[in-house]
Amino acid sequence: GDAVSTAIARGTPVGATGSRLLRGNAPEHEQLEADAAAFFGAERALFFGSGYIANFALLTALPQKGDLLVLDELAHASMHEGAQAGRAEFKLAAHNDVDAVEDAITRWRAEGGMGRVWIAFESLYSMDGDRAPMESLVALADRYQAFIVVDEAHATGVWGPDGRGLAAAYEGRDNIVTLHTCGKALGASGALVTGPRTLCDYLINRCRPFIYATAPSPLMAVAAREALTILSDEPMRRAQLHERVAFASRQLAERCGVIPSGSQIQPLVIGDNSRTMAVAAGLQARGFDIRGIRPPTVPEGTSRLRISLTLNVDEADISAMVEALVGVLATA
After folding, report:
1. Are strands 147-151 and 68-72 parallel, antiparallel or unpaired?
2. In the chain, which segments carry CATH 3.40.640.10?
3. Which among 71, 195, 188, 192 is positioned nearest to 121, based on CA atoms?
4. Which residues in the chain belong to E strands, given as ranges?
5. What is the pLDDT of residues 17-72, one digit of tens each?
6. Are 41 and 164 in contact (CB under 8 A)?
7. Whole-model pTM?
8. What contacts 185, CB < 8 A, 6 or more positions away?
9. Shortest CA distance to 3 belongs to which of 155, 313, 219?
10. CATH of domain 2-233
11. What is the model's pLDDT at position 1?
């Protein structure tokens, strides 16, 4: 956009040339981080090259040896990678099951666990479109003096006040670290980690993916900063998307018997791998870019279509897609 064109004209570099702790720290990075901290209501923000790297970095750097990390079983692959590579003991909890998280904590304590507890999850899940029981998980963390790491990849820009995500009410607390990706609703790339100043300072000095990676492009920092401004200045975009989501939910429920997810991500679970891909191919042949998702991305037996709604479609497009879907399902 104009902000990026202006930045290019004034000589903002495309590449950072080095890591943030050496020659790669640019004013554009620091401006973005200051604006992001203010926008999301956190003490500090850090800009990473991608959401995957940021999730991996958080779960390898923050939980220490002797700590416990409890991770939702359907959390993103980057969180699972970070948990496996990290120093803390980690347990998987059944999806969105607060009692299972508490059970993992109490069992660990009963077995002599003395360190900190970390609870990691997505606020809005990428393959089911459902939401985490945020209020209950925050209350549980408070009860056990635990820390929360929440991935807002699919909520940032779409849900919450000013598009600040589903954890917006809890930003600024000293036990919550939040990941906001820039490559989805924000239309840029990279990711912003927001949280308490002490934890972010620790990451700057101890987080290997932050210390040893070449810094993200300063131009991308400009683009992400402009995206945050648009979120504040143009709330009608979110309102229009929410209307599209409600319309699609009604259409899919009435015509296909789909249970609405309540978000811009609407799965249609078919189950059989080959039929899922055949339905996806039928829709693509009719001009609808809907992809089939198979294991290991989703659990065995839950292959699905992933319908992702954006402002690039209107109600007529949605109606046409549902009509095509009804036809393809009848023959595939």
Report:
1. unpaired
2. 2-233
3. 71
4. 44-48, 68-72, 89-93, 117-122, 147-151, 176-181, 191-195, 265-271, 291-293, 303-308
5. 999 999 999 999 999 999 999 999 999 999 999 999 999 999 999 999 999 999 99
6. yes
7. 0.95
8. 156, 157, 158, 163
9. 219
10. 3.40.640.10
11. 67
Domain 236-331 part of CATH 3.90.1150.10:
yes
Distance CA 41, CA 168 (A): 8
Q: What is the pLDDT of residues 212-257, one digit of tens each?
A: 999 999 999 999 999 999 999 999 999 999 999 999 999 999 999 9
Confidence of residue 332 (pLDDT cuts 50, 70, 90): confident
Provide the b/e sequence for 306-321 (b: ≥16 CB within 10 Å).
Answer: bbbbeeeeeeeebeeb
| Spatial CB neighbours of 242, under 8 Å, sequence gap ≥ 6 | none
Q: Residues spanned by CATH 3.90.1150.10 within the chain? A: 236-331
Distance CA 104, CA 14 (A): 46
